[in-house]
Every structure is written in structure tokens, then in C-alpha cells.
Specification:
By secondary structure, the chain is α/β, with parallel strands linked by helices. It has ten helices and eight strands.
Length: 213
Amino acid sequence: MSETISLVLIDDHALFREGLARVLESQPDLEVKGSTASAAAGLEIVGKVKPDVVLLDVDLGQERAIEFVQQARKHGYEGRILVVTAGVSDPEAVQLVRNGISGILHKHNQPEALCDVIRLVATGEVFLEQRYLKPLFQTVTPGEGEALPRLTDREVKLLRLLFQGLVNKEIADEMALSESSVKAVLRGLFDKLGVRTRSQLVRVALEQYRDQL
């Protein structure tokens, strides 16, 4: 990823979309490469410009965010998808997480907060607002009849902090560890749970370890 974070906006509310584009373009490290109201048009734009981050509303008129996410992944888009929404149901939030989104942020947040979250997920971090964590855990059924790898107390604590949207340095401060130690614990979790990205790690943790978290 370059120093400038490239963005595509997909939201069916024109005034919000255009206002958001102006806010984002005012930031020296953010660049809006395209915007549209529909998932179908969004897929075309994303295929052409391959942005670092897609900002995606949940309700796109007759379309839903999950349709875009699934099709984008099917067509090989490997960038980050940040859902920016006025609200999302618990089952739909779980479905979006399972399909590898990088975060969910409510539209009532200040523009500065959104810019910070964009920068966060662009680095590979995962951000889920606290309000969505409990419903996510409650709506996920852990696998049955499977011998799951045991998580250590340190790994459980790290996952809890990761779900709060903390970056490695903040996690290190909370756990009284060095950043290199945090990275080592994360690598161990990736290997143990058979995942390659933080979004996959969040999904597996929600599905299989909610009782411990």
C-alpha cells in the first residue's frame, strides 16, 4: 500500500456520499478514486481502480452490502472493506464478518473518527464498534464435536483487545508487552487457527471461541 490510501465509496444516499467524499479528500493521505450508489456499479469501479479500502453502506436500496462483499471477493478483490452504516442487524453483521470485512462503523461518528478507522483498517487491523461485539457473540453458535486448539490466557486477552479496535502498540501497552511480542502472539494465533489475516482471525474467534471471549 502506498502512503496515500485510495478509497471507493458505495452509498445510495447522494448527499451523504458527496459530503463524505469532500471530507475525505481534505485529508492529505486519503484519496477518493470513485463513488457510486449501487453494488453493481461499485464492483465495476473496484475492479478498475483496486482501492485500498472500500467504504460500504449496508442498505443499498434493492441491494445489500453482503451481495457486494461476496461478489467482490469472488472477483478477486483483496483490499479492505469497511462498513459505514446507520445500523445493521445482528445476523447481517455476523454474515459480513464471516465474509471478511475489516470493520463496522456507525455513521453518527465524527469525520475524524472515520478517517482514523480508515487508516487503521488500511494497515490490516480490524475495527468493530463495541456495540456490535456482544450481539455478534450471542448470534454465533460455536462448532460442536470438534477438538479446538486451546487458547492461552494471553491469547484470549489479546483477542479481546483486538476486538476493541486497538492497534499493536495499544495492545502492547495494555498487556505490558513489547510490540514484537504482540506480533509473535498474533503469528502464533494465525498458525494455531489456520488463518492468514486479522479479519479471518476475528471470524474464527467469533465462530469457535465466543464462550472464552
